[in-house]
């Protein structure tokens, strides 16, 4: 057999040499990245994970003792896990504001939806202006843009003019406005490959809320 | 002006009627989804949010008092926010096991990488077999498949044969094997639209770890 065997010492040495070279290249690359900056982060697309990864970043901030805040624009009336966990365990580090009262087809009242979105945005502005708050998650705000309840251009102008340089602002929801994607520092599109709703499985605790 | 005005009572009534219809249709659709099932969930793709949304779901489980567990296959040596938060606050509800010792180019030792991946998988099997554990996050396990440290077919066969029906298993990492995507219930591909590393910004606490 002439095939290389992973357990042969010469193969291990070759692997180590290759990895040492890769590490050196990677270290050079990472050394060039020295900037620190408060980011505008967008999670969009039809797939799952937009809110849960925003919530995951909020938990990372809490772990690092970085004060942070959440404004929920749509799911306000729901008893979600994230809401329960943040309000019962971490209210000292993370403010949690639920402004929406559910999806538009739940409230069936456009004026009330618009008022809730506007109240959410006023609260968000107050939180973003406070430089002691290091991350503000605007959960499902893109839905408020899509329904015309908030003006994306106005929100973007505020972020560009008034966001403190080290504050991260995370905006989630499908259908993020193009101008927001253009202006953001970090944009991820969650693409749906397969979803269990299609197989008749309902929303389940831990997974969806 | 013949343009409809959002504040006119007739427009409000029209909106309410439209939304009532939408709600009825949606309720019928959601009523058809009665199934409950432990899911095989895959987060893959080059974009951000694979681990953080897995971590977000773990926090949802904790909020619902559902016992859960994390096995980290790659980032083991890192002091991440998720590790710190779970081990200091929630060790009663969530086991946290770090088996990897960093990326392959950090260890530069293939035999050690393989041994760590195999130890991680043994621990994962033990956790998945325990039906009291409702969600097991196998963080970055797809990387272990990509490097050939673990056999995806073997892992998949185990999940199909031994995963208790109500247990959710979440597998993250770019480059998920095709067979795993085929077999999974919920698959999201995180697509990278824009990343601040490209603009010279380094990994920052709260955002990346």
Automatic annotation (TrEMBL), chains A, B:
Its EC number is 2.5.1.17. It is an enzyme of class 2 (transferase). GO terms for biological process: cobalamin biosynthetic process; porphyrin-containing compound biosynthetic process. Residues 5-30 form the Cob(I)alamin adenosyltransferase N-terminal domain. Pathway: Cofactor biosynthesis; adenosylcobalamin biosynthesis; adenosylcobalamin from cob(II)yrinate a,c-diamide: step 2/7. Its main location: cytoplasm. GO terms for molecular function: ATP binding; corrinoid adenosyltransferase activity. One of its GO terms (cellular component) is cytoplasm. It is found in: Cytoplasm. It catalyses: 2 cob(II)alamin + reduced [electron-transfer flavoprotein] + 2 ATP = 2 adenosylcob(III)alamin + 2 triphosphate + oxidized [electron-transfer flavoprotein] + 3 H(+); 2 cob(II)yrinate a,c diamide + reduced [electron-transfer flavoprotein] + 2 ATP = 2 adenosylcob(III)yrinate a,c-diamide + 2 triphosphate + oxidized [electron-transfer flavoprotein] + 3 H(+). Belongs to the Cob(I)alamin adenosyltransferase family. Required for both de novo synthesis of the corrin ring for the assimilation of exogenous corrinoids. Participates in the adenosylation of a variety of incomplete and complete corrinoids. This is Corrinoid adenosyltransferase. It comes from Paracoccus tibetensis.
């Amino acid at each position: 057999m002439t095939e290389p065997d992973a357990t042969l010492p010469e193969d291990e040495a070759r692997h180590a040499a290759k990895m040492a070279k890769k590490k050196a290249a990677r270290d050079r690359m990472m050394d060039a990245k020295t900037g620190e900056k408060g980011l505008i982060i967008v999670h969009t697309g039809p797939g799952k994970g937009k809110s849960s990864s925003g919530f995951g970043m909020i938990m990372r901030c809490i772990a690092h003792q970085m004060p942070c805040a959440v404004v929920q624009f749509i799911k306000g009336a729901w008893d979600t896990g994230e809401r329960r966990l943040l309000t019962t365990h971490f209210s000292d580090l993370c403010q949690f504001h639920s402004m929406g009262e559910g999806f538009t087809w739940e409230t069936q009242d456009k004026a009330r939806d618009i008022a809730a979105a506007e109240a959410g945005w006023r609260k968000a502005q107050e939180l973003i202006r406070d430089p002691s708050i290091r991350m503000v998650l605007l959960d499902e705000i893109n839905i408020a843009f899509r329904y015309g309840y908030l003006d994306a251009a106005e929100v973007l102008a505020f972020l560009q003019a008034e966001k403190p340089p080290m504050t991260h602002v995370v905006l989630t929801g499908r259908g993020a406005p193009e101008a927001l994607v253009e202006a953001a520092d970090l944009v991820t599109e969650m693409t749906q490959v397969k979803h269990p709703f299609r197989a008749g499985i309902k929303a389940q605790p831990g997974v969806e809320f």
